[in-house]
Amino acid sequence: MTTRDLLLTAALVLPVALSAQERWTSRNGNVSFSSSTPMENIEAKNNKVSSIYDASRGEVVFVVLIKSFEFEKALMQEHFNENYMESTEFPKASFKGKVGGIKPGDLSKPGSYAVTVTGDMTIHGVTKSVSTSGTFTADPTGRVEASCDFTIKPSDYGIKIPGMVKDNIAEDVKVQVRIDYTVN
Amino acid sequence: MKTKSILLLSTLVLAIGGGSYAYKEYNRGVEDASREDAAAALSAEQLVNEFKADEAASNTKYTGKIVEVVGVVKSVDGSTLVLSAGAEDAEVSCSFESTPMVRTANKVTVKGECAGFDALIGAQVQLVRCAIVE
Lengths: 184, 134
What we know:
The complex is a heterodimer of chains A (about 180) and B (about 130).
Chain A: H1 3-20, E1 23-36, E2 41-54, E3 59-65, E4 70-71, H2 74-84, E5 92-100, E6 111-123, E7 126-138, E8 144-152, E9 173-183
Antiparallel strand pairs in A: 1-2, 1-9, 2-3, 2-4, 3-5, 5-6, 6-7, 7-8, 8-9
Chain B: H1 2-27, E1 40-43, H2 44-53, H3 55-62, E2 66-77, E3 80-85, E4 87-95, E5 107-118, E6 123-132
Parallel strand pairs in B: 1-2, 4-6
Antiparallel strand pairs in B: 2-3, 2-5, 3-4, 5-6
């Protein structure tokens, strides 16, 4: 093999090998939220969240189907879907943004990486710019977990809470995101 | 006096009855769709293909409605059953209350409420409150 052949092979193989390491996906991520007031606590979880983290571009995307949030109480689930989220009209929430504080290739080394996430959140048909922080954790087996906690105000997304139940639903709803990514 | 006590008694009965109804209603658990009528019956592949072709129209047609879906079991993970829907990355993901008793590669019919379509990775229709029909 000549040097030229070697270089050519390297040029062909390397980008494939690198890009193969840079796209992380999940189809069963978890997003849960909780609202706590002196009147009552409301919790729901969704374990069908899909997400792509493209490390080479530093971009992350999430898609969440609203009706896939599961509640303990049927009435809460019905009110959430029918009255507040209007999930038949707006079935999806999504986020698309940039991840900062981490370099391509970092996740191939075990460790915990603090990141910033900035982008557009769409809920109930309303899009807002949001910014928060999170963590990527790569374990020695190559598993990567992303976690992120933040709060949202239903009123920012045009979600109307009737006066009668105003004391039962928090103004700031806590959201927890946990995604187990696999590389592909 | 008699009328008064009858009134008082009936008010009490109503209050207790109403109160216990409200309490029961408030604590009512989420039920699966087995006792509800299905608005449509089709194969997993058909359902995913309709969403792929026109998501908005399919949301109007299926999302929030009870559907009966026939398909081959691709996987069961905890309380989630996934049906194959033609293409390799096409599937119907069904949420149950507990682990459904089905075998991978078997053909099953699932009844559930359609939650919509997620096309970020492949093509996936999600169903909630699922029950095995057969």
